[in-house]
Every structure is written in C-alpha cells, then in structure tokens.
Design brief:
The protein contains 11 helices and 13 strands. The chain is α/β, with parallel strands linked by helices and 296 residues long.
C-alpha cells in the first residue's frame, strides 16, 4: 500500500506542475447568449451507449436520472441516431474523437459530447453546436486503433463512420461506468443551468470538503492501480522528496464503486484518473451530491 500512496502523490505533483485541464467542459454562457440554451431546454436528450453497456441499461438509466435534470432524456441504440438527428426536438450525447497536435506530434482525444442541431442560414444544412463534453481515457488498443483510422486518406464522412463504429463496438474507456457518468453529467447539467463556461483549462479545490479526507477513505477505481503497476511514474527529485498520500485509500472494481456511488444512503469520495492526448487529469468527486471537489 505504501507504494501506491507514493505514486498517488507522484501523479498529483505531476498534475500540479503542468497546465491543469478540465476532464468535463461545458459552454453555458455561450449557449445562453446565442439562445441555444433555451432551445436545448425544449428538447429531449438522447443518450447513446457502447453496445456492451446495454447489458447494464438499468444502471445507466439510474445514473442519468440521478443528475440530468435540464431536459427529459431517453437512452437509444447508436443505430437509432439517424432516425432522430434531423428532428429539432432532440439533443444528443454520443462518442466522438478528434486529433490534437503539439510540436508536430499528433494524438487522439476521445470524448462523450452533448450536441444540439438547429437550422442554419443555408436551408440545405444544419448547424451543430457542442454544449459540453467529457474527456475519456481509452485503453492502449482503442487509442492505437482510432489513431490508425484517423490517419487513413478517406473522405471525412467515411472516416467518421468508421471511427464511430469502432468507438461503439470495439473500444474500452477505463474511466467510464454508470456511477462515473453520474458525476460527469452533474457538471454539464449544472454548468449549463447556471449559464457558465468551463473550457479546457480548469483546476479546483474545495476548501471545506477535500480536507474531510483526513478522516475518510478515498475510493480509487481498480484501473488506476493496474495502470501504475505496469507503468510506474517517473520519480523526479520533487516527487522523491514528497510525502506519500497519508490517508486511507481503498481500491475497488467498477461494480462495487458504482454501487457505492449510486446507493442513496452511502456517501463516498472517489478519484477519477484521466489521460488525454498530452495531459493527465486527477479529479475527486463526492457522491453525496455528485459534485467535483478537486481537480488538477
């Protein structure tokens, strides 16, 4: 356990020494100014899941119902999107990917995004507005496959269809589960309702709730231990001198963590670790109200 407490300090220090990135972003201020927010509130939001997720449909429905209040919602299958995406009374959550470039190096980011489709000035086209998104942490295989597809010289439409097919059928995101989704949606839902923006850069520290961990257990998804068991963080001088995380940790599998998060009479604080193209993001949530209490 001492080893894991040391790497927890290590990844926190690594995050502190870089520009903090948001794991969940939303654009309520811009949507309010353009009147897209009022249009959104009149829609039904359609949620799509990976095909493997439909085995846990009730759990996902429970998680969405717990924190998504800005619109009515319905969970549909990915193949049903084409039935609804031209109808004005719907908004959509779906998986997508985009390329980010830094110093001539390109990497892939996979996201779960909220899209609103409205009429444009050109009657033959529709205007697509992204109102919020969640940065996902694909496993090595998913990241490689999506990157390989994105580098192929195909039409944009054909390429997008192939990537979407892969994301829904043959991908794994290690920071994705019904319980974790509840926390992500809480941020987008409340951010839009309060007409606020949270762009890519973001850091946060709840001065009241985070210190409570001195007397509580921090729950950590098992995937975090697995990642750092196979890929230990580089211990720079600043990390070596750092004190380990000296409070209680408990590693739990997804199923147990989801049960604890979604159980009404159980309040826990839990960690989510995300790697996007060039960044590492640490978030801590409080299941009492699904709010984020720390992010670096």
């Amino acid at each position: 356990m001492k080893h894991y407490k040391l790497w927890l300090s290590a990844i926190i220090l690594t995050s502190i020494n870089t520009i903090s990135r948001a794991q969940v972003s939303y654009f309520g201020e811009e949507a309010a100014k353009s009147e897209k927010l009022e249009i959104l509130k009149k829609t039904t939001t359609l949620f799509t899941l990976q095909y493997a997720d439909y085995a846990e449909l009730d759990r996902f429905n429970e998680a969405i119902k717990r924190t998504w209040t800005i619109t009515p919602f319905k969970i549909i299958k990915p193949e049903e999107l084409s039935t609804y995406d031209k109808l004005p009374e719907y908004s959509f959550f779906y998986f997508d990917a985009y390329t980010e470039k830094l110093n001539d190096i390109s990497n892939i980011n996979v996201i779960y995004e909220l899209k609103l489709i409205t009429p444009s000035k050109n009657p033959k086209e529709k205007e697509e507005t992204i109102l919020g998104f969640v940065n996902l942490f694909p496993d090595v295989y998913t990241n490689l496959m999506v990157k390989e597809q994105s580098e192929k010289f195909e039409s944009r439409k054909a390429l997008k269809a192939k990537i979407l097919n892969m994301l829904y059928n043959n991908s794994k995101f290690v920071n994705w589960s019904p319980g974790l989704l509840a926390g992500y949606l809480k941020q987008i839902n409340d951010g839009l309702l309060s007409n606020q923006n949270r762009a890519l850069d973001f850091q946060f520290y709840n001065k009241v709730r985070l210190p409570e961990l001195a007397n509580e257990t921090l729950y950590v998804p098992e995937y975090v231990r697995q990642i750092f068991s196979s890929q230990k963080p580089k211990l720079t001088d600043s990390v070596v001198k750092a004190e380990p995380y000296n409070y209680k940790l408990k590693f739990v599998p997804y199923a147990e963590l989801d049960s604890l998060i979604l159980k009404k009479d159980t309040n826990i604080k839990y960690l989510v670790y995300t790697q996007r193209s060039f960044d590492k993001i640490i978030s801590v949530y409080d299941s009492k109200d699904d709010k984020i209490i720390y992010q670096r």
